[in-house]
Amino acid sequence: DAGVIQSPRHEVTEMGQEVTLRCKPISGHDYLFWYRQTMMRGLELLIYFNNNVPIDDSGMPEDRFSAKMPNASFSTLKIQPSEPRDSAVYFCASILDRGVTGELFFGEGSRLTVL
Amino acid sequence: DQQVKQNSPSLSVQEGRISILNCDYTNSMFDYFLWYKKYPAEGPTFLISISSIKDKNEDGRFTVFLNKSAKHLSLHIVPSQPGDSAVYFCAASRNQAGTALIFGKGTTLSVSS
User: Fold this and answer.
1) Nearest-CA distance from B101 to chain A in Å?
2) CB B36, CB B91: distance < 8 Å
3) Where are the beta strands (DSSP E) in chain A?
4) Where would a tag sit more exposed on chain A, N or C end, judged by fewer CB atoms within 10 A?
5) Inter-chain contact B43–A107, Cβ cutoff 8 Å?
């Protein structure tokens, strides 16, 4: 079975450029999460969706960040304009209902470097 | 204000010995706790979980202990193996629909042979 698929795996860009990260959740999963990993803050939740609807975006750091989920099989996280402090690994994760276990399935991450 | 805290950034253990990773939380509403393991260049993967109605859950070499009064949980790995070397994240949530996992900063475990 295909897991959560993220692209690109690596992105190097210059400050001020627009960055778009993409995620395909596991088919049938109805929750999708975007997390960001940094040394200073660890894994922090940015936003999550249920049935394509944003539920909680309080973790989105600034208006420069936006996320969409136009359908059940695709989500994007956009940063515009990007800044060096946005450099991090961005993870997408999905789950079928919160259920009992709460086990999230993560993608391999997108490593973003903003110069 | 971190709701889930892993105060030890790193831990080094010899192969065959016990590894103990600790985690503290501040939100008394949390009632479900999980540990994730992460290798370099990979996403975190689920390891073991525990509900607040239990104080211990065991799965092979991995055991998680929960002390609700102290708002503390720990992950024990016995015996430790070199392949256990990874970053371990503690996570917590309210076990109900519509809530997300809150993670700690992680502890890097190094198991030497």
Assistant:
1) 8
2) yes
3) 5-7, 10-13, 19-24, 31-38, 42-50, 53-56, 65-71, 74-79, 88-95, 105-106, 110-114
4) N
5) yes
8 Å CB contact between A115 and A55? no
Q: pLDDT per residue over B73-108, tens digit each?
A: 999 999 999 999 999 999 998 866 557 889 999 999
Angle at A95 between CA A3 and CA A65, to 5 degrees: 90
Which residue of chain B has the CA closest to A9? Answer: B41
CB of B37 within 8 Å of any CB in chain A?
no
pLDDT of residue B68: 95
Which residue in A27, A7, A37, A40 sits closest to A107, CA to CA? A7
Mean pLDDT of A11-17: 97
On whether any CB of chain A is under 8 Å from the CB of B34, the answer is yes
What CA–CA distance (Å, rounded) separates B98 from A100?
12
Using one digit for the tens of pLDDT, what is the confidence trace for A57-67? Answer: 999 988 999 99
The answer to whether the CB atoms of A45 and B100 lie below 8 A apart is yes
Cβ–Cβ below 8 Å for A108 and B41: yes
- Compute the radius of gyration of chain A from its Cα atoms: 13
